[in-house]
Amino acid sequence: MKPTRIIFILIFLLCYSKSFSQQVFNEDVGVKIEGSTPQAPLHVRQGGALGQTLNHSQLIMRLQAESSNNFYQSIWIRRDETGGGDWKTTRLHNGISIDGSYLSPGVNTRTWWERDPKDNIQSWGNGAHTYMVLQGPSLTLGSESGAYGRFQVNQQDDAADKGIAVLNSTGQRAMRLWTDANNSYVYSGATGASDLILNGQGKVGIGTNSPSAHLDIKADIQNRDFLRFSSDRSWVMRLVGDGGSDSHLGLKALHGDKYFKIQDHLDNSVFTVRTGNGRVGIGVEQAAYKLDVNGTIHASEVLVDLNFPGPDYVFEQDYPLSSLSEIESYIKANKHLPEVPSAAQMKEDGVNVIEMQMLLLKKVEELTLLLIKESNENKELGKKLKQVEAELKDLKSKL
After folding, report:
1. Buried b (16+ CB within 10 A) or exposed e, 256-280
2. In terms of Cα–Cα distance, which of 256, 262, 206 is closest to 234?
3. What are the C-alpha distances in Å from 292 to residues 216, 295, 301, 357?
4. Can you give the residue range of the structural domain that contains 9?
5. Dihedral, CA atoms, 250, 255, 256, 259, nearest 10 degrees?
6. 290 within domain boundaries
7. Within a domain: residue 334?
8. Long-range CB contacts for residues 269-273, cutoff 8 Å, separation at least 24
């Protein structure tokens, strides 16, 4: 036998005899390393006490594989809080090391998994970074802090590609959700403005990144409909016009004859519009006319288009003008002017303002003609009176 081989066997026996004192074999129970009385087929006991400083660790077990490098999977116990001395500040850390590097749990081990029995926490990460934490039913990505909900993502920075992305079946980015120091964004697509933004002032923007109101919706000439109330008879709020200075807001009924109503707290209709006939009601449930108002109308000016001619025909030569005596007789018999409805009739049927205005104008014109006729007759009587006075004066001078 070669001397080098003999020397190697002697060294091996010395090392084995030293380590055997720390191993116990029980054919009925198993093998225990460090201590006695194994409690499992393989029972490994960490030999030293864990220190009380943060990230102090003790190696429990290691598996080694070799390729071009030594590849280790190791299990440590690690102190997760300075000053702790018992299991409440201790975690079990499973990580990967390469050759003589990445050997410090909580600092630089690769693709690690760690468990905290006190706080019911499982965490996954790489080096000093925690990427995912499961604490009870709450899942957090990017941090150990899951205080804001059952699912929390902590971005490493404020870039759009550091938030949440949902991909479609072809692997393209279909939706993104992210936040920065001031705003939260929801966007579907790759570039352009966010579909939805919620800023730090409680303002929501749809189609705009700079909402100027609590709800700011941006519509354009290609997408005029910006708010839809869906039901079996839907409404759409839309941009009407050319998208420039001639643009205005429109409310469109998508199906048939419908009512748009503004109601008070008792569900009484304050304002109604019926799309089928274009009738508008104020203070009425169903408008019977184009504008139906239950109340007083105050206006500085009213302009009305006539659909029939004014009563200028009164001034025609062949107009049958009634005499004052005829009018007097009619009034005595009926208690109102000819052609003018009685008070009882107006109360029952209401008053057509245009027709009444034209009728009153007609009566004014008739009265004007009667006054002119009366004036002319008075002038003739005056002339005759002067003639009589002259004749009397002449007769007196001759007596």
Report:
1. eeebeeeeeeeeebeebbbbeeebb
2. 256
3. 34, 9, 18, 20
4. 1-45
5. -50
6. yes
7. yes
8. none
The total of other beta-carbon atoms located within 10 Å of residue 101's CB is: 13
pTM > 0.90: yes or no = no
Cα pseudo-dihedral 349, 353, 354, 357, rounded to 10? 110
Residue 145 lies in a domain: no
Residue carrying the six token digits 């964004």:
185
Query: pLDDT tens, position by position, for the chain (399 residues)?
Result: 555 555 454 444 444 444 444 555 555 545 556 666 777 777 777 777 888 998 899 998 899 998 889 999 999 999 988 877 889 999 999 999 999 899 999 899 999 999 999 999 999 999 998 888 888 877 877 766 656 666 777 776 776 666 777 777 776 666 777 787 787 877 776 555 567 888 878 888 887 878 888 888 877 665 577 777 777 778 787 777 766 677 777 777 777 777 788 888 888 888 888 888 889 999 988 888 899 999 999 999 988 888 878 899 999 999 999 999 999 999 999 999 999 999 999 999 988 888 899 999 999 999 999 999 999 999 999 999 998 888 888 888 877
> Are residues 333 and 285 part of one domain?
no
Both 243 and 274 in a single domain? no
Residue 245 has a CB neighbour count (10 Å cut-off) of 7
| 111, burial (CB in 10 Å: exposed 0-12, middle 13-18, buried 19+) | middle
Asked if 10 and 41 sit in the same domain, the reply is: yes
DSSP string, 316-371: STT--PPPHHHHHHHHHHHSS-TTSPPHHHHHHH---HHHHHHHHHHHHHHHHHHH
How many structural domains comprise the chain?
A: 4
CA geometry: angle at 166 spanning 163 and 168, to 5°?
155
